[in-house]
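Troubleshooting: if your tokenizer reports a length mismatch, compare against these two reference records.
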Amino acid sequence: MLMDIPSTSLPKPEPPYVKGSQLTVHLHRPPPPTPVIRNNCINTTTDIKERRGIDSIDKALERCNRHPPLQGNLEKPCYVRLELTGPVVQVGDGRNAQVVVVQVLHKSEGFNTLKKEKEVQKFQIGDRLVAKIYDPLYFDDEEGSLNPFLCVDRHYTHESRAYHVLCEMQGKEIPKFYGSYSLELPSVGHTFRSVRLVLIQLIRGSNLSVMNVRAFSQERRQSIMRSVIDFESRVYERDILLADLFPRNIMMKLPQSTLDANSDEDQHPEKRLIFIDFAAAIFGRIRDDPVPPEYKPNLFLGQYVSPLLRWKLTPTYNFGDRVNWDWLPWLKTAFEHTIDTITPEMQLAYRDDYDYED
């Protein structure tokens, strides 16, 4: 497929997500996660023709109007007034999401009548949160190969659902989740376009991709990798495959020693890991491509699958030279306690992947 011009070269208004701007967002109930099927977010010939016809800002906005986000349910009485305070986390054209720090200015009384949900945390006026905004207008469509509207629908519905499924991990291994919302932005003429977003906890720290993790001792790096594998395995037990588990999506909180004299986080950085970005989460552990029953693998849904079976290969693709030790002997020692969870059926299914009895 021939590549078109980058999405950043298409005419469009400047992103409205600038420091000092204010947004009113309404609580939104997303539809179920969109199916994940091979090439289902790829532009069709019609989509490409439409994209090539964008020669003005109005045309770009009209395209957004023609492709609104999936409907879901809007809770109109429940709205929040937010101010973008900074710092900017990720804003600009050519981004898969606009990520900004916001402060809650106002919260409607409609929230007081909502049924309490354990999956959605409460917030107060004055709180500083992170807004992750799925705006297709500024999405990186990889030179026209991706359909930005299908992509943001997928990212929004999958991320929202992941926070619900992993609610017991909120505020611990993952940020607290403050709900899914919808935003109305001015479009062409007197029209408006809808954009979806989520509000999550503000984490003070840096992601592993920008940290000099090699400055840690090998023992510390091994502790970090053990925490990564343990988290991924427990998420997998909840039938979620993390398709985007990279250092950029793992944050290390600032140490709490200044707040808690009894904290041991300074000596144990693995205890400060927070996992973010679940837009690429795959539910049911596998894509939704149609597969004949006789070829469908036993995924052991709902069961814990030992890392001794699933983490055989040194994760150099994900974690590069951060892992520079003899992987298999370390893995066997680190997760020896999980051997008893391996059933004969699991052993048979993974027989070509790992000989854990060695």
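Reference record two:
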Amino acid sequence: MTNKLVSITVDSRETRSGMADRLRRISGVTVLQEELECADYTVGEATLGVERKEVNDLAISIMEGRIFGQIEMCKATYQTTVILVEGDMRQIRSAIAPEALDGFLSWVALLSGVQLLHSTDANHTAALLHRMALHVCHGLGYEIPLRTEKPKDISSIRQYLVEGLPGIGPTSAKTLLAALNTPRAVFSATQDELASIKGIGPKTIARLFEVLG
């Protein structure tokens, strides 16, 4: 997937960081430069906006309150906004209180509606920008298996099959098999048969019939 072509727009005011040159050295990356209204890097038509903050710049931006306005503007502009924090948090040369920094990071991660990523240095930032651009433009690039464990004995294989049904976890799968004995019987059971099984509710039954047809 890494050899696929992507375009990343870099804010023209980011030239001092050298990030545009780092991105150009990555195979398949086309770098565009323009003055962006918000965010330091974008991918797609208002799809992804990335605001990069070196750790010391982040601390100052938090204390001055600038970062909050930047986040709100990015949220209004892009479908997805990422705050990319670059560097070692332990090396911050600022008077910011640790509680204030932790509070900001927690707020971004849980309450702000934007995504939070961390990079170790500028090269890592370039690699992450490339990876995000690939995901925006080309998707994941491979299928993720829904279930990774591969049982070997018959009873586990039967449970594994039934757990593949929507709303059915290990406990429900065992309950269904205890009542109906085989996956075939579970898959072909009538609504009345399923309704008679304790622990299998009407919403689960309706969903099963919707999927199984």
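Descriptive notes for reference record two:
- The chain has ten helices and six strands.
- Residues 122-138 form the longest helix (17 residues).
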